[in-house]
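Subgroup meeting minutes
Present: P.N., E.W., G.H.
Scribe: E.W.

1. P.N. recapped why we're keeping a running log of single-chain structure predictions: easier to compare across weeks, and new members can see raw inputs and outputs side by side.
2. G.H. added today's entry (134 aa).
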Amino acid sequence: MNLIRAALFAVFAFMGTISLSAQQNWLPPAQAIVVINQQLDLLSEPFVPTPQASLSTKELLVEQHAKSGLGCSDCQLRAVKEQFLMLTLLRIKSGMDTGAAVEEVRALMISGSGNNAAMLSSIQTAYVYMDSIL
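Output recorded in log:
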């Protein structure tokens, strides 16, 4: 099991270095702060599942409960993105460069993940999200 976790960590680290080499131009800190605040506003809106006509009322209730409960993968990713944004914002406001702030937060979150494969996957997805908006 530890071998699998180590392999996943190596893959995510390699993907991160490829992503970094592909993007050399991070937004300046002032612009990054504006973008991060906009994204935090979007993430702070409550999660409301869209009803589907083909599902019965009971199925809709089950789906809504599943998406709002603990363990919901969308909910976990949303929480990781929000944490990633807030921690990056704090570092940028303290004077760090945008790229350095994103990389430091990514390293901090990976070290705090406890080698949980689902958490590492969410962190990598959030990192790609940060790379795309900044």
